[in-house]
Write a structure and sequence with these properties.
The protein folds into two domains: 141 residues, Aspartate Aminotransferase, domain 2; 230 residues, Type I PLP-dependent aspartate aminotransferase-like (Major domain) (Aspartate Aminotransferase, domain 2), CATH 3.40.640. 40% of the residues lie in helices and 13% in strands. The chain is built from twelve helices and twelve strands. Strands 2-8-7-6-5-3-4 form a seven-stranded mixed β-sheet, sandwiched between helices. A three-stranded antiparallel β-sheet has the order 9-12-11, with helices on one face. It has a two-stranded parallel ribbon with strand order 1-10. The longest helix is centred in the C-terminal third of the chain and has 24 residues.
Length: 381
């Protein structure tokens, strides 16, 4: 059978670790999951109640391709409440997760062969979706010295058609402040480079709130999701904010690619937007977990870590342990029952010397995980 080269994408290596962890659990072992970027909390109670109430009250068939008007209005209000920005709901498109937003963005903004810059290390799906759409992902190397943050000159000197920036970032947790994000947007606009802002981890901050690209310019595309702050990963519901001039273009693509985001998830998302007290309690738990993890990793000898300003990850150099990050992750799982993500997923060049740890689970699991990791590292000194 003839196949397309667009399917030649890399596997998501964390799934190897997840499978091994599940096999260990099936044998009765207690595994601490620090590998998956998934909240340990369920969808907000109000969201679950809204779905229950809607099951007998409506058919839950197709919605408008751009999403339920009430949901789009409420998302627009979120930007006023969080950022002081006025957004016309006509610019809001509800998507099947942030992944749907990436697919629509790349398809509507770029032609085959064009070059899109992404930070390295970075979320692996960016480069794989770009490759699958016949686009060229350009890895822009970030360094610990820069806090794993992109610099404006990296955009102006790379000859890009577009650039995608995440703040807070996955896997590092690094955030751009207003000056830093402004510099990147200005560099992009000066060179005719389309700017896409992945803001999926907004709401998960531990000092200052994250800055939205929409606070700086309307000539950007913003992608967000209910997966992380709203604890709704499996509901597959997200949104895009696009410039008015391209809203219809993106909508037409969405009609043919997805028809609409799942209706039931839109009902849940609308209710979740008013669950602030519960969501802030979750964030307080993550803040505690973050401190426990940073302290535990430091005590275990992990001293070279990215600044985890937001999200729920710590990205650490593990070169002092010797060996490859995937091999060491397998050893940690086998010896101590702790699952972590090897850096290969996030950095094809340097990922063999890093791990990503998620602190999105229960605090007790983080405490136990740190104790187990300390035992593991002590045996390798």
């Amino acid at each position: 059978m003839r196949v397309s080269s667009r399917g030649d994408v890399d596997p998501f290596i964390v799934m190897v670790i997840l499978q091994l962890a599940e096999e260990a659990e099936a044998k009765g072992h207690h595994v601490i999951h620090l590998e998956i970027g998934q909240p340990g909390t369920p969808a907000p109670a109000a969201a679950r109640a809204a779905v229950e109430n809607s099951m007998n009250a409506r058919s839950l068939g197709y919605t408008q391709s751009r999403g339920l008007p009430a949901l789009r209005d409420r998302i627009a209000r979120l930007y006023r409440d969080w950022y002081g920005v006025t957004i016309d709901p006509a610019r809001v498109l509800v998507t099947p997760g942030s992944s749907g937003g990436f697919v629509l963005s790349f398809a509507s903004l770029f032609d085959a062969g064009q070059r899109v810059g992404i930070a390295n290390p970075g979320y692996p799906a960016y480069r794989q979706i770009l490759k699958a759409q016949g686009l060229e992902p350009v890895l822009l190397e970030t360094t610990p010295e820069d806090g794993y943050r992109l610099r404006p000159d990296q955009i102006t000197e790379a000859g890009l058609d577009g650039v995608l920036v995440a703040s807070p970032a996955n896997p590092t947790g690094t955030m751009m402040d207003r000056a830093g994000l402004t510099g990147l947007i200005e560099a992009a606009q000066a060179t005719g480079t389309t700017f896409i802002s992945d803001e999926i981890y907004h709401g998960l901050h531990y000092t200052q709130p994250a800055v939205s690209a929409l606070e700086i310019s309307d000539d950007v595309v913003v992608i967000n999701s209910f997966s992380k702050y709203f604890s709704m990963t499996g509901w597959r519901i997200g949104w895009m904010i696009v410039p008015e001039a391209i809203a219809e273009r993106v909508d037409k693509l969405s009609q043919h690619m997805f028809i609409c985001a799942p209706h039931v998830s839109q009902v849940a998302a609308l209710a979740a937007l008013d669950a602030g007290d519960e969501l802030e309690a979750n964030r307080a738990t993550y803040a505690t977990n973050r401190e426990v993890m940073i302290d535990g990793l430091t005590r275990a000898g992990f001293t070279d870590i990215a600044p985890p300003d937001g999200g729920f990850y710590v990205y650490a150099d593990i070169s002092h342990l010797g060996g490859d990050s995937l091999d060491l992750a397998k050893a940690l799982l086998e010896e101590e029952g702790v699952a972590v993500t090897p850096g290969h997923d996030f950095d094809p060049q340097r990922g063999g010397q890093t791990w990503r740890f998620s602190y999105a689970s229960a605090t007790a699991d983080i405490v136990e995980g740190m104790a187990r990791i300390a035992r593991f590292t002590a045996r390798r000194r």
